[in-house]
Model the fold of this input.
Amino acid sequence: MRALCFTVDLDRDVNIQVPGGVAAGSIDRGDGNSPRFTSAQKGLDILSDILKETGIRATFFAEGRTLEYISARGLSGHEVGVHGYDHEDMTSMNENEVRECLGMSVDSIRKATGRDPVSFRAPYMKINDTVLNALPEFGIRYDSSMYGRSESTVRPFRLPNGIVEVPVPEGLDRSGKKIAAYLWPMHEGKRRPEDYVNMASEIKEGVFVIATHAWHMTESRNGGIMTQEEAARNAENVRQVAESIIGMGFEPMSVSECAERFLQ
Done:
């Protein structure tokens, strides 16, 4: 059995680390590095339509601050996990700071969705034992902050503290170049949908985790705000990846569903 786990980082537009600060900013488009959320909202709306059309229940890893600036309507029916509060590098924090950040993040998700989150993805995919060991205190049982080798069998596995890791696969494409199942290179015009479909086809059993950013549906890190035509092509690429992988027999599942179904 094979599952497609479609995950989305729902965070501020084109997040960047700000020197000397903890909270992330947004890449400067002429008004400085203050956080922006417009592309995240538009991207969420686009993704919500794609997921509905393809029958996918996704997992959104939501940044707490972003949930305070956008409408959460597009999250209805999907799993919502924790992605920090201000897209902090949580590996730079001490234990008390990590707990404070997680508490604020969980509260934001609970307020926006009425549900308690059970999954987590670290901002920047940067995680350490301090963060991992704090997660159970906040009801978090599943993590997807690590990359794992893309092999014929890819399964979630249990970490020493009991958290179940659902890794994002990475490996080599058919030309021998490194590839991870994050879609950002496709959004930036550096990869084609077929690259991710081919990657998924190598998995004969287990979970294929796809990851993307909501803001990346309408804004490119290098190219800026997309035109309507560019955004439409971008959305079609995402739809093609999802439909093609499902067409190969992958069953769509959330992070928590994959963890429970495929745990080693």
Remarks:
- The chain is about 35% helix and 20% strand.
- Residues 13 and 38 are 7 Å apart (CA to CA).
- The chain has a mean pLDDT of 97.
- The longest strand covers residues 2-10.
